[in-house]
Amino acid sequence: MLADDISLDRTTIEAALAQVRALLRRAYTQPDAFHGPQHAEEVLRLAEEIARRMPGELRPAECLIVSAAALLHDVGYTAYQPDWAPNRSEHVAASIAFAQRQLTEIAPFAAHPPLIAAVSFLIGYHDDTSYKFPSFVWDGRVGSIDLGWYAAQLAAFEVSLSAPQRERLRLLLAILREADALTAAGEAGAARSFQYAIHRGLPIFARGNPLNAWCWEESAAGNTRLAAKRALIDAFTPEGRRTAWESYRATEAYLRGICTEHGMPYVPETIVAVGADDPSAISAAAGMEAALELISYAGWGARERAIRDAAFADSPAAQPSAAAGMTVRHLPLDLLPDVLQAVDREGPQTAALVALHARLLSEYALSLFDLAGVVEYRLNGSVMRAMPPIVERHPASLTSNRNTLVIRDGAATIALARKLGVPAVWVVDVDGALGIGGETKMS
Question: Given this model, what pLDDT does residue 283 score?
């Protein structure tokens, strides 16, 4: 057991946590509605609830570790400097620095330095799930938190533990992650995520798919959805998964209200449409052999430029002109051509898409059918890219009706959507090829 040689009674733990709370209050010399003491107390409350539901009771020292980490996991925001990155990722290392500097003044931690190391470990990795996603802060690439020399320190601490102790440490980290993630979802959590993004100057909506949630820092709406996804991924207890899905639905209701307020059509994500709306579905594919890692995301603007630069139709000379209109639309599948024969000729591509979509749901709570830009990913060691289907009129039938539409790219994606019963997908409509209304507005 982690800290199995440390004996603490309840009175000692409560006194220590009272001192940690005092440290926290003194650290916040300025009000912080997003990461201040109120948020810390909510994370602590949830962490204690999760710990009580564990099949095996946590030892007193483990309870102290989780509780102290819950209170201090975001305290580094108090050290904010103007040269920090827009996503404030530096707050994690700053939180560790605060904990290691201040906990030495509190009796149980002073007497048992491994407790401080364990608290530091939980703080250092509590937000890792968020950084699995691409971020515009890193030019659309997947980045990582720079822990500086703390990274080596925490790695050395983990290595020093026995296998059972490492397992217990990872359990404590899972408790903190679930608790912290759940505070960012639901109506109140959605409002907090949305307002924090607006506070930092993000636009309300993204280009292309206005509610795009593939990349951090693209829009306030996207960040709000990503925060809810983090809860779906990090919730590991049965009750936590149920709460995460309830919170996800509440987040979507909040975003629907935002869309109504700003005259923007609300389009739900398709993770529910493909059957992921189940407490166990997000982790259902965890045993699959396909290993997925997102590398980068380029939004609709980059995709549009790539289309204009590439040979498009049957001849390399046949390219959309610079003036050709291109619109990202969310379209019912019954408006699109049946591409079954084309997909039959692309069997390996279809198989790859099946694996990709399953892993996107499992690892990222993302649906391939919500894609409006270009995502680069690594699947089973191979680097590949995915993008939304492209639709245009056949060059020989420019005066015909929409039944002469052709899918110039993405036939396998559309076929997979039909197979899964997905009602609609995001596509690129070149020069009004679809001949229907309902264009997606750009913000």
Answer: 44
**pLDDT of 62-101, one tens digit each?**
999 999 999 999 999 998 888 888 888 899 999 999 999 9
The amino acid at 188? A
Pair of tokens at residue 65: 């570790």
Inter-residue contact 248 to 228 (CB < 8 Å):
yes
CB-CB neighbours of 269 under 10 Å: 23
Q: What share of the chain is helix, strand, coil (3-state, %, to 5)?
A: 55, 10, 35
Asked if the model's pLDDT at residue 276 lies above 60, the reply is no
Selection from 104, 99, 119, 359 nearest residue 233 by Cα: 359
Q: Mean per-residue pLDDT for 105-114?
A: 92
CA torsion 355→356→358→360, rounded to 10°? 160
d(C-alpha 82, C-alpha 99), whole Å: 22
- How far apart, in whole angstroms, are the C-alpha atoms of residue 12 and residue 115? 14
Residue whose token pair is 């936590």: 240
Nearest-CA neighbor of 174 among 54, 260, 74? 54
Q: How far apart are CA 266 and CA 260, in angstroms?
A: 8
DSSP of 230-248, one letter per residue? HHHHH--SHHHHHHHHHHH
Please tell me the pTM assigned to this model. Answer: 0.87
Sign for the pseudo-dihedral over CA of 404, 405, 409, 413 = negative
Mind listing the pLDDT tens digit for each residue in 291-350? Answer: 789 999 998 877 777 776 664 444 444 455 555 677 888 988 887 776 555 554 455 667
Question: In b/e form, how buried is each residue of 62-83, taking b as 16+ CB within 10 angstroms?
Answer: bbbbbbbbbbbbbbbbbeeeee
